[in-house]
Write the structure tokens for this entry.
Amino acid sequence: MKIVLLGPPGSGKGTQAQLICEKYHLPHISTGDMFRKNISNNTELGKKANEFISKGSLVPDSLTISIVKDRLSEEDCKKGFVLDGFPRNLFQTQELNKIVQIDKAIMINISDEEIIKRLSGRRMCKKCGNPTHIDWLKNGLCEKCGGEVFVREDDSPDIVKARLEKQKLPLEVLDFYKSKNIFEEVECAQTKEEVFENIEKILKKIK
């Protein structure tokens, strides 16, 4: 299964991508994670990407497409993957279509108000990298591995608002996948399990 997960920041794409990958044994391809890893390792790509990410801006298409293409060429992606956070515009969508044929593009719908509420409580685990929420923590620690958690810099209210404005998914992207009859939508539910159940119903159509 070659899947694209769409939705604004805070919609739960990362969480749902992990749930899909764990159940179906697929690699999770997150452009955000790849850029953060490069930033943490202080690579040249990381330095360039951080100039934009630290301001809540998008990394230029040329950098993003290059890193995605290289990652999808690796052996573990041959039988499938879940793309999280890419594509973000029509050009990226068209370029991705030249690289690989996507089976399903799934959009997670959520309001801006709910996103701001969610991101103010989002935490990241220092140990396993798990995206979590203050409501899910066990004794203030990651519910998955017990590691210490922290607040991402780009989850501050001002940065979140900037990201929401700049990262709105163009209708052209949705129309592109609709024209190929592979576009599906799920509504953001109260729990991540409920959202995953709805996504599973869509994935069963692929098999």
